[in-house]
Amino acid sequence: MAPAAAHPLQKWLLVLVVFVAGAASLGVEMAASRLLAPYFGSSQFVWAALIGLILLYLTSGYYLGGRLADRFPRPVVFYLITTVAAFTIGLIPYISRPILLWSLKAFATYSASVFIGSLAAVILLFAIPVILLGCVSPFAIRLLLQQVGRSGRLAGQLYAISTAGSIVGTFLPVLWLIPNYGTRFTFLVIAITLLLVSILGLVISSAGPGSSGWHPREGKQARHFDKKSLLSLLLFIPLGLEFLALGGPIKPASGTDGGGVLIAERESDYNYIQVVRVGSEMQLILNEGEAVHSVYDPTSILTGGPWDYFMIAPYFNRPPFTPAMVHRVAIIGLGAGTIPREITAAYGPIPIDGVEIDPTIVELGRRYFAMNEPNLHVIIQDGRYFLRTTTQKYDIIGIDAYQQPYVPFQLATEEFFSEVRAHLTPTGVAVINAGRTTHDFRLVETLAQTMHAVFPNVYIIDTARFTNSIIVGTNAATSLSDFARNTAMLTNPLLVSVAQESLAFGNIREEKSRHVFFTDDRSPIEQLIDQMILDAIRSGDE
């Protein structure tokens, strides 16, 4: 005897729930990566913990869903599962902060703290909702199965629909929800969407025989529901979303500052890395982009580029400020060590903590860029995690972290700048390198205004070489005139040279506006950079 067949409306509702659950499972994973980044960074360890455990939860859900479906093959049970899943997804934004803070602090003393801490956070936050989402497909197969001879086709159709939902759940949060509305809102949209279709299912399945619920038509084969057109349409959704968000594919052109000879290349977990010689200068190129991330010239300390300006940032403080007042420096985004080399030359062997996420870059920096200063302490770690777990105070905290062409979002938010300020001495300064074009300063201005929500005063200097600007936030209240007064008293030729270049050609200005463009919850920095790239291509700007 064949199992009871479902009313067509109920069947279509089951298909819809399978699709939404598939979208929710990947949507939760994509939003989870954004949620974890401000606490643990976005390193390979964090992604491994996140992806591995999500897959483990889904696997557990598949097994559990099959067992529950055989024991309780009723639609009400199915929709209760998805209702609870929706409810627990909706809880994530509200319980995440205490759990993530506890996880970060609890494992900060272990050498594998990033990996272990992120494991604990993912276990506590995402286990229940993702396991319940894994139950959906096998349970739906059991409810819709009418003939054993058609079980393979039915299972294939439902898993295809679930996967189509997962595709939408991958692209929709990344290209639209997270950049425009934030991580918390994205979780809530996922939860509410799943909850609505679950409640609708509970209402219909509770209606009983004779309504639009299940009908006991034993011995009769239920009508098919054609999914081919639905699947074809769904497969084109992510392509359309990507086109609307980016305006088409963009591939940065390979190149260096004026061409050069390739000396070395490596493929790391994070980057495709090239070391190029241009004349007497070594240049570090990442991911075939046009940006130069570090330079080294054995015949000169100064580069003319953005690295030089980190040295003179403290002189925005109230006079008299002297080089002897700079005691300790941190650089987030060490690269191949251009900034520590210059700071050591200008200030002597003061302690410098250099934070770099990619160990291969550090290896090449030591080999080709003379990154061997004895006062440089290299820390292989995500920059945000480093700040979260250190108690050290610094006179200069420099941020020069790019994964071409993007700035890691967690290193550009109001919360991040608050953490930076908490690690500054009373006269400490925060310095960030921001890219731009010759006419488009949107990234510079949004970063400066976000910083000004945290720092009393924020200043901008345009660099002499490359299209970059340096943004300086002071821990103490300062004024623009302080820079000229302090630098007029300098005698060190390196500092004097950069200060004079800044005053003459740097268009030094104070950012007066305070507006938070980037937060841990909503930081559309990638979207902004994409728009800048597209506008630069259209206008021919550099």
TrEMBL record:
Record-annotated PABS domain positions: 328-482
PROSITE patterns noted in UniProt:
PABS_2
Q: Which residues cross the membrane?
A: 12-32, 44-64, 76-95, 115-145, 157-179, 185-208, 229-247
Provide the active-site residues from the annotation. Answer: D400 (proton acceptor)
Keyword Transmembrane, does the record have it?
Answer: yes
GO:BP terms for this protein? polyamine biosynthetic process
- Which Pfam families does the record match to this protein? Spermine_synth
| One example GO MF annotation | transferase activity
Q: Which UniProt keywords apply?
A: Membrane, Polyamine biosynthesis, Transferase, Transmembrane, Transmembrane helix
NCBIfam families the UniProt entry points to:
MFS_SpdSyn
Q: Which family does it belong to?
A: Belongs to the spermidine/spermine synthase family.
The protein's name: Spermine synthase
Q: What organism is the protein native to? A: Thermogemmatispora tikiterensis
Q: What lineage does the source organism belong to?
A: Bacteria, Bacillati, Chloroflexota, Ktedonobacteria, Thermogemmatisporales
